[in-house]
Amino acid sequence: MTNEQMVITFVLVTAATVMTRFLPYVLFPEGRKVPSVITYLGKVLGPAVFGLLVVYCLRNVSITSPSHGIPELIACLVTIGLYVWKRGMVLPMAGGTIVYMILLHTVF
Amino acid sequence: MNKKEKVTGKGQPGGGFKALRACFPLTVPVMAGYVFLGITYGLLMKTSGFPFWLPTLTAAVIYTGSMEFLMVEILASSFHPVSAMATAFMVGARHLFYGLAMLPKYSNTGWKKFYLIYTTSDETFAVNYGAEIPEGVDRSWFYFWVSLLDQLYWVTGATLGAFFGRFLKKQKEEQA
Questions:
Q1: How far apart are CA B79 and CA B124, in angstroms?
Q2: Containing domain of residue B120, as a range?
Q3: Looking at the domain assignment, is residue B163 inside a domain?
Q4: Most-buried pick from A2, B86, B156, B174 (CB within 10 A)?
Q5: Does residue B30 form part of some domain?
Q6: Residue in B closest to A44 by C-alpha
Q7: Structural domains of chain B, count
């Protein structure tokens, strides 16, 4: 790619990214009332995306594989347990990840 | 509407430094992630042969980790503007959902709104969406500081990575 082509690509990619960020605010400007469907979606989509991410994360875990998905299960339980116990974000994330890594490298 | 939430100009109680102090702890996990990932990104860009200032530029202007990593390959391959733009739309589609979710929270934020929307990254969205704004803290300033800090972390990481990459390259050349 020539330098000019790189600049064009850069500008186009930036424009597309900016559009994805601004489009909801352009479609539903502040003055007008937001349709209740959209408000509902706004409330529900956050947790829905989290659910999607969990499924996406665990989709390749196989019970028939050598580790039988046990380290993943243990790590998930540790993460959930830490959250229920202490709340917050850092401890459950770090704890679950560390437990998983240790399990992968030592036991399984 | 809560009077303390009203957004006007300077000297607004609950804004400025008070909001910064309130939101900073929430951005510390983001700082760890963004700085390290940013360094990785800057290093990758530099060792792929791009100029040292490019990671800083993309970090400031594009500000989407996933797309910026893809840019390393896109810019190194042949010119396909339509496919690059389509990829950016698809990779960035999640921002549509972030915008929908933040529609009510980002309303009435005045001049800051443009910057708030422009810098809605995954982590910034997560922090701002779930944040409980303390009493007496101006909401728009809280969101603004979070967005600004997060972007600073990312830009710093990318810049550091680019400089490490330059330093590594010089070391390699001296040894050769």
A1: 32
A2: 14-175
A3: yes
A4: B156
A5: yes
A6: B101
A7: 1
